[in-house]
Amino acid sequence: MLDINTFDARAGGNVLYKALAHPLAAKAISKLYQSLPAPVALVDPDGVAAALLALHPGIPPLAGLYVQDVLALGVERAGHAGQALTDLPHCGAASVLIAAFDAGRVLDRLRHVLPPGATVVTLDAARLPDAMLTNPRRYLDRLNFATNFAFFREQNGLSTRLVTANYWSGYGATQVRLWLHLYDEAGATLAEWEQPVPSGPGGIVIDSRAIRERFGLPEFTGQLFIHAIGAAGHDVVKYALDTFGTDNDASLSCTHDANAWPSGRYAGIPAPGPGERVIVWVQNSHAVPIPAGAIALDRMGAEQPVAVGRAVAPFATLALDVADLLPGLAWPAQIEMRSGRHVVRPRYEVVRGGRTRIAHANVERAGLLPDPGIARLPPQLGRGYLLPVPILPRGTFRTLIQPTPMAEAQTTLPVRLDIFAADGGKVAERFLGCLPRNHNVAADLDDLLPADALAEGGHADLVYDFRDGGEADGWLHTLVRAEHRASGHAAESSFGAHIYNTLMTYRDEPQSYAGAPPGLSTRLFLKLGDSGRRSFSLLIYPASAAWHPQSSTSLLLHDAEGRQIAAAPLTIACSGSALVFPDAHFSAAEIVAAGPSGYVLIRDTTCRLFGYHGLMNSAGGFSMDHMFGF
To answer: What is the CA radius of gyration of the chain?
Structure first.
């Protein structure tokens, strides 16, 4: 397990981690190490040493690790016991590395205790160039590291297309640009470039076909590192990523953005069904190799992880066939990935009958314990935590719902399904049980509903139900799988629960993107279709308790420069849903005016909507994942 602090649910991402893990930092720190004569005294005033040496272990031999806090004396960091800074003058080091950025004041305080004649450097020697910083005056400003990774492929007739918008402009950003670095499967650099971004809230598209042609590249499967320079408001690059077949569209899938911070475990990966192969894509997010044995797969709840016997080079990609590590494991069993904090949210790929679909695993929380207060929530919070799950029109699509453990301490999942028609009417309720961690329940709506129910679609809420006991932590997740009855194509998504649309609050719920809870407004991104594929969204108006009887939703069509081309109103019943196709709300001329980089902003100031989006084609191919907001 890499000794790095990557993400805290209360504080957000660890900026120091992102500064040390940036691809350019790897080159700069390697150069810095080469400049240090041995032995090196490593001064660690802020507790940086463990992460620095985990991500960049090639430092010359150490004379010692020196700390300022007396409580850190004798405490090991990266295998070195902390020594007092007062001992620094007599350590005999030939060089001193002060492990801090913006370290001028620290250096001034230490000048009189530095070893005589020693070379002295700080991590400021490994800063990114000022031209790449949103705030050069404060290096560890989170907006200096608005970064993310994307799975990126242009190989074997499959292409990828990343779409997003300049949502930073809504927070005051005026000159945003993207710095992009593309790696191949071996971790070698294929291309590096900058891409300008519209000054307003315009659409952004990065297409693997165009990148391959622009740089004259061979076919590739790898990862794309994205750094937004000049960002405001958000320090994560949010996007939707389509994977599609360039020849016959037999394959089509959509995944949400990566998490940007590695986790120790990931969950929500399905075992293969009949005739399926499940491939887990391991993509090293760091400049240090992943050692053999550091990655493992396990059946959820078995606690018998099977290690991968291969190392993975820096920034390289490795395809793991689940059957090679867990032979005989079959759907509806679930898979847990032990990742050692080496990768951001991994993708998995399901191959069946000449079609492929890609989805993402989710972060499995460490240190999250059951919350007894959830079972005692007062009636003012109604059903409390709920997870809206899409149900596409049942005449065309079959829907399966599988609750997924998503915290290391979760041993039970006491849950039921509340099923609603598009008009908000409740049509069914099914208690799924107090499920154990290693359960194999996948609820098939064909077994729960009459054949003619929800012909136009609807949704289900997965909610806690303690009638048979069990515990809850608020981190309730599920996998939802839709299958096209005629073509056999499938798509799946997974997400977590929140409290929705109440004035009353519990802890940080209902969540808000800006300001304190409750979050009672909507700003969702919906891409447009392309190359004969229709864009769609299933918008859901989830309500933990009674709220406005109908939403007051606006569909705002924007072009590549962020100009609003047209607007269309939409109302959704409380606890209801709406299947939205942009080309049914806007004219063909308006869609053309928006252009291939245009998008629809779904806006509502009266309630928080949740949604799933994707593409559909005439051959029964479709994609689906949850939407992102900003």
So the answer is: 25
